[in-house]
Amino acid sequence: MYINNLQYLIQYAPRVILSQSNSGITIYKGQKLKTDFIIDFLNPFYEKYILSKNDKPIKLRLSGIILQKKYHTYTPYLNYLIDEGYIIKSRNHFKGKRCNEYKFIKNMESCEFEEYLNYDSSLHKRLLKFYNDPSNFKSSPVIDEEVLKFTINNLRHINLNYKNAKSFLDDFVVDKKKYLKNLSSIRKIKHNHIYANPDGYGRLHTNFTILKKEIRHEYLTIDGEIAKEIDIKNSQPFFLLKLMSVNMNLIGDAGDDLMTYHDEVIKGNLYEYIQKHTDKQNRSEAKRWIYQVLFGNTYVEYDDFNMLFPTVYRFLKAYKTRFGYKELSHKLQRIESNFIFNKVCKKLMDLGIIFFTVHDSVCVKTSDFMAAKNIFDNEMNIYKTNLKVNLFRRNIN
User: DSSP labels for 246-295?
Assistant: First the structure.
């Protein structure tokens, strides 16, 4: 959902399509096609491309029912994009199961996608009405609805120094996908196209959650003040401890390694500990490896981790075997969001402190930083105390 009234949508279009358009019309086999519709067709492929973490071909499922509602007569647009070599049908629909799937087959870079302001047309009158209708508020299965609405409304208070943020990207971000993803996000912020999308696992996705931390720390303001961030160190390994504490039956006899894991996570030093005791060259490499261990599928063995933390590794394998490896990440996200939103943000809201969230962190105005940090630290101390009691209660007894 977008939180502001929009007169146009920021989309991306191949340069050649823009050059061939005449007064918003593209001629195809004697038919007049709306260029806005062609661009609207292609934009989701580009958006998915810049968010993808690899260079595999981009595939999208397109529902004929939805296309019919959006474009009325959509077949000429599909045929145009197929004939021009942009997409092909890669998988047929299966009644009641899946829609037709289409694959983008041109080279994204050679298409030279450009920013395009797709103004209110017969298409977007319906879309913009939907985006801005309060009745379309999307709730979260994890986040308290009052807290969620307050958090989303706070996004109106955030501003960006676009010029400096763009210069930072141009000068320091080399990775192509990260550059394009961040560029798209700051462009939308510049145009005040602020969106908020809570997912089914408790996370709130906004324009700000995908920004590089340097941009958040240097070029975002809340009511004119620089935003300061408070986060949880080793957040996913930390919330794994919570998950273990309520599933002790999957651990069996806990070894001393569990206490070592607990202590390093609580101190925020797990990645450094991993680096010291394995062949990982730096903290970033150690973090990537830990995420592979935590969220990889059930069948991959990690002997090095098993040697360091056999109790934790035994739990990971048992949990993934019982519930599926994807459920582990989903469950940790729910635990994380429950703490961030229903504990920390609830207290910030009660004090009227404006904030925005980036999954495991909270950003506030500089003048509110100490008050927010006290709340954050108090909630963390309560959480850690209860966690340790529950996790090691058998040893205590």
Answer: T-GGGT-S--HHHHHHHHHHHHT-HHHHHHHHSS--SHHHHHHHHHHHHH
Q: What is the pLDDT of residues 134-159, one digit of tens each?
A: 666 788 999 999 999 999 999 999 99
Distance, CA of 155 to CA of 194 (rounded, Å) = 7
Tokens 């958090």 appear where?
Answer: 151
Task: State the average pLDDT over residues 311-315.
Answer: 94
Mean per-residue pLDDT, 253-275: 93
Q: Which helix (H) or strand (E) holds 163?
A: helix 162-172
Collapsing DSSP states into helix, strand and coil, what is residue 207? Answer: coil
Structure tokens at 323: 């519930």
Q: Are residues 273 and 290 in contact, defined by beta-carbon separation less than 8 angstroms?
A: no
Question: Residue 6 corresponds to which tokens in the numbers above?
Answer: 């929009």
1: tokens are 């959902």
User: Which amino acid belongs to residue 5?
Assistant: N
114-128, 154-168, 238-252 — which one is most confidently predicted on average? 154-168
The Cα 37–Cα 43 span in angstroms is 10
Residue 265 CB: number of other CB atoms within 10 A? 23
**Closest to 201 in 3D by CA, of 332, 293, 321:** 332
For residues 373 and 154, give the distance between their C-alpha atoms in angstroms, rounded to a whole number: 18
DSSP 134: G
Quote the CA–CA distance of 121 and 127 in Å, as a whole number: 10
The pLDDT of residue 126: 66
How far from chain centre, in Å, is Cα 387?
27
Name the amino acid, one letter, at 128: L
From CA 289, how far away is CA 300, in angstroms rounded? 13
Q: How does 57-90 read in b/e, with b if 16+ C-beta sit within 10 Å? A: ebebebeeeebeebbeebebbbebbeebebbeee
Sign of the C-alpha dihedral, residues 46, 52, 55, 60? Answer: negative
Per the DSSP assignment, residues forming a β-bridge with 195 are 2
Question: 391: burial class by Cβ within 10 Å (0-12, 13-18, 19+)?
Answer: buried
Give dist(CA 26, CA 45) in Å, integer. Answer: 20
Please name the amino acid found at residue 339: F
Whether 383 has a pLDDT exceeding 60, the answer reads yes
